[in-house]
Design goal:
By secondary structure, this protein is of the alpha+beta class. 17% of the residues lie in helices and 25% in strands. It has two domains: 3-88, no CATH class; 113-364, Tubby Protein, Chain A (Alpha-Beta Barrel). It has helices at residues 3-7, 10-18, 22-25, 47-60, 68-75, 78-87, 91-94, 356-364, and strands at 28-29, 35-36, 113-120, 125-130, 141-151, 154-160, 173-179, 185-190, 223-230, 243-248, 263-264, 270-271, 281-286, 290-292, 297-299, 314-318, 336-340, 345-350. Strands 3-4-5-6-7-8-9-10-13-16-17-18 form a twelve-stranded antiparallel barrel. A two-stranded antiparallel sheet has the order 1-2.
């Protein structure tokens, strides 16, 4: 029986649950100081065999839920986790979303990730799914959830990995989106520092915990990673909504294979300078629609990914001169598009340099009434 078939059997799945704990699997120190290892532990497998097993599982699994076996490999023990990190490459190169950290890494270069956003108006909750088929009714793989809260004069969207726990104190908290009173200017906050030495944003609105709630294991603040602004259109003379986004490039924590030059990411893992995006800002603006004389409306080509006309629909392109928000955009490469396909269903397609977290936050800004911009 091949290794691929072995990994798909129930017997192997049960063996993951029965594997020894990380400390025991990697050996311990006896009372007299002699180090020993459990002979029956999964961690004692030869490195060459272990690496080959993980490589074959990673190559065989293209989509979720099949890629749950790759995650299982990383859950066996620390040694398996390190090998899996060495083998699994980031979405920028493979287009595969495997671990939660992939949600903050840049999307694919060529073919964008196709996602669905589903809205629950009663609870003001939004759910992001990775589409596994071309159908708009596809359940997909759950990625992120967000809930809208009214906080005094501004609105906040709390973004979480857990659809049932949407609070800043949760271990599943990944960031938030905060708007001004008019809902025209937004700031995106990440729960993790975007680079080494980054300081959390000051101000009460950007705090994650009260002073008595701070835990040494959890970052106490939020770190600004982007801004979204909608231009005023009080005279209704400039067409649909116009928006400008300034985003900090995501960090790539995993090490791609086959390169030589290396650098170190935030979590201490090595990565390669030629493979991760350059640090700095990416300035995006909405692609200008064209006026359709026959339909008497503004139109954009969403290539079948949007089926319902809505003021919320948009496409974002990068400006050529990144230092000038008003610079001319690359009309051929859409980095993020968002549009309506049902009463409470929307599509979200994103690619490099945006991450799923950043793209989701930008799309959340489109919800809500903006009288000053329409």
């Amino acid at each position: 029986m091949s290794l691929r078939k072995v990994f798909r059997t129930r017997k192997f799945s049960r063996s993951f649950k029965e594997a020894p704990a990380v400390g025991a699997a990697e050996g311990g120190v006896t009372g007299n100081g002699v180090e020993h290892a459990h002979e029956d532990g999964w961690s004692n497998m030869l490195p060459e065999i272990l690496c080959e097993i993980v490589r074959r599982v990673d190559a065989a699994e293209e989509l979720w839920p099949n890629r749950q076996n790759v995650v299982s490999c990383a859950c066996v023990c620390k040694r398996w986790r390190d090998i899996t990190r060495e083998v699994v490459r980031e979405p920028l190169h493979t287009g595969k979303i495997t671990f939660p950290s992939c949600l903050k890494q840049p999307g694919p270069r060529e073919v964008p990730h196709q996602c669905l956003i589903k809205r629950n108006k009663k609870t003001s909750t939004f759910y992001l799914y990775l589409a596994l088929t071309q159908s708009f009714t596809d359940k997909g793989k759950f990625l992120l959830a967000a809930r809208r809260y009214r906080c005094g004069t501004h609105t906040e969207y709390i973004i979480s990995l857990d659809a049932d726990d949407l609070s800043q104190g949760s271990n599943a908290y990944v960031g938030k989106l905060s708007s001004d009173f008019l809902g025209t200017n937004f700031v995106i906050y990440d729960s993790q520092p975007p680079h080494s030495g980054a300081k959390p944003s000051s101000g009460r609105a950007s705090r994650r915990f009260a002073s008595k709630q701070i835990s040494p294991q959890v970052p106490a603040g939020n770190f600004e990673v982007g801004q979204v602004s909608y231009k005023f259109n009080l005279l209704k003379s400039r067409g649909p909504r116009r928006m400008v986004c300034s985003m900090k490039s995501p960090v790539t924590p995993f090490k791609p294979t086959g390169e030589t030059s290396e650098s170190t990411s935030l979590d201490g893992h090595k990565m390669h300078d030629k493979e991760h995006p350059a640090s700095g800002h990416t300035i995006l603006k909405n692609k200008a629609p064209r006026w359709h004389e026959h339909l008497q409306c503004w139109c954009l080509n969403f290539h079948g990914r949007v089926t319902v006309a809505s003021v919320k629909n948009f496409q974002l392109v990068a400006t050529v001169d990144q230092s000038q928000p008003g610079g001319k955009g690359d009309e051929e490469t859409v980095l993020l598009q968002f549009g309506k396909v049902g009463d409470d269903t929307f599509t979200m397609d994103y690619r490099q340099p945006l991450s799923a977290f950043q793209a989701f936050a930008i799309c959340l800004t489109s919800f809500g009434t903006k009288l000053a911009c329409e």
